[in-house]
Here is the input.
Amino acid sequence: MAAFPEKRESMGLADRIESLIACQVSGQQPGPEMQQWIDRLPTRFKEKFRKWGLLEGFRVAATKSLPSHLGDWRRSQVAKGVDEKKQAELQYSRAMRAFSACEFNYWQDIQASKLLQTVNGLTKLQRKKEGVTDTGKPLSPRSKSHYLEACKQFANWMVMDKRTSSNPISHLKMTTVIETQNPRRPLTLNEINVLMAHIINSKQLRFMSGYERVLLYQFAMETGLRANEIRTLTRKCFDFENLKVRVTRKHTKNKKEATLPLKPETAKAIQEFSKYKTPTACVFKVPKHGLSKMIHQDIENARNTWIADAAENPKEYRRRTESDFLLVQTDEGKLDFHSLRHTFGSLLAASGVSRRMVSPSAMPPRRESAERRSNAKPAAAVSPSTRLAGQSEKSNTICSRCHVSSAGVWSVATTLAGTKAVPL
Here is the structure.
């Protein structure tokens, strides 16, 4: 085998080969120093050693490409049964994208500084029906932290699986994200009234009628469930007799099964709406793509109609035009579907329910975070909602403050404790 041009280097290689042969004969694993030396070898040498059988019996990271190791890591995560397959795929895609952007083809190519710089320059991806497109917008600090975390998890697995002896990115630290990068605000009582009254007679959007959208938004504001949690609810998840809805652990964010109380009026409306659906059919046709556009269009149309109603009164018309009423983006935050979850928390707080009764995981760790979201604290974990229904009489009447009239138009009582309606 052709070695090095220098005799001294070639003799050193011969000594190392003898040590490898000794390890193979004795059945021992090479030490950390030998392992590091193998990692630094040119690929042609490692391929020769593997053909000779010197590298059999233990795994060496440098003998396989990074995509191969990443594939093994993904399969091992799924086989564990600890992480959901979706989460394993997400971590795999993040690590694969980061290493590909760095042009790392083998384990020995990984450099911590280059990885950090590359992740810092990654842009946001947007998934559509046509596929994944690059928006060109920089990732948020939280997303960058998630990419680095995925890379570190993969590197730790490489060491634990004895594919390598060292982790070159173990010293990288995750970015601490304190401020909310995508703040939302809750809807006020009057905004809810105007929005729902407009939607009920509006045209179909995203294959959902006006009534179906009213029922969807109402259900989201009364339960605090996320879009995907509502999307996966089937008719058998609803217990109309006992006024409860169950969310399976597969679809909750904290991966714990949860049960939520339902208002009698809402339960009756959903039961009537879904009476022709099979037990395994989804109750709400929540679109996977364009949900934000749908609710934005509803909000913008409701605001335009509200402003147009004052066209005969110039002073009032100007006041409404300059106000933040039903404005999608304000200094307090933006309105989207997740804002309905914040609205749920706002209604709970206005009803006098203690924040600690909502959910322990919903309590912010810092005071400034509590002040920022005091009006919009959502019920992040759905499981404590069952406790809300039985702890006190006040909690039993939380959802009864909001009701749908017989005509199907949303109406929120303005007698909430400490809540005053803003004049329209």
Remarks:
- The longest strand covers residues 131-138.
- The first helix runs from residue 7 to 26.
- Residues 359-424 have pLDDT under 50 and may be disordered.
- The two ends are 87 Å apart (CA to CA).
